[in-house]
Amino acid sequence: MAGYEDMALYQLAKKLAIEIHQLTLNDLPKFEMYEEGSQIRRSSKSVVANFVEGYGRRQYTAEYIKFLTYSLGSCDETKAHLELLHETGSLTTKNFNRLYGNYRKPGAMIYNLRKAVINGKAT
User: Fold this and answer.
1) pLDDT score recorded for residue 34
2) Is 27 helix (H, G, I), strand (E, B) or coil?
3) Exposed, middle or buried: residue 62 (CB in 10 Å: 0-12, 13-18, 19+)?
């Protein structure tokens, strides 16, 4: 039986969280490492963690939807942190464009999965 580890959404969100983690420790100015860097590390990892927790509760539809909603919110939060880092000059335009663009995909995937669960077309 396939688990959450086999799902494209999980694999992508995890890959991006690792990318954010490494970028914030290696490429951000030191003064951002513990403030905005910490916030974006937590929000990017929360996308993954909330998806996995929801997946574990998928037999309870309301719980599944709740955690997918949290995951989607964390994805949006991560994009907001990327915008703030870029607009304050702490994140290069190249990294911003790449990461912000990459975060659109898991956001759409979570949104569509959540919609399908709400409509009874996915478990």
Assistant:
1) 86
2) coil
3) exposed
Radius of gyration of the chain (CA): 15
Average pLDDT over residues 62-77: 98
Which H or E element spans position 115? helix 93-118
Tokens of 25: 């420790």
- 75 lies in some domain: yes
Domain-located, residue 85: yes
Q: Does 74 reside within a domain?
A: yes
What separation in angstroms does the CA of 114 have from each of 22, 28, 109, 111, 121?
A: 29, 33, 8, 5, 10
Q: What's the token pair of residue 109?
A: 């995937």
The residue-averaged pLDDT of 36-56 equals 97
Residue 89 per-residue DSSP state: T
Asked whether the whole model's pTM tops 0.90, one would answer yes
Identify residue 11 by its one-letter amino acid code. Q
88-102: average pLDDT: 96
Residue 102 to residue 57: CA distance in whole angstroms: 27
The 8-class DSSP code of residue 19 comes to H
CATH number reported for the structural domain that contains residue 82 in this entry: 1.20.1440.60
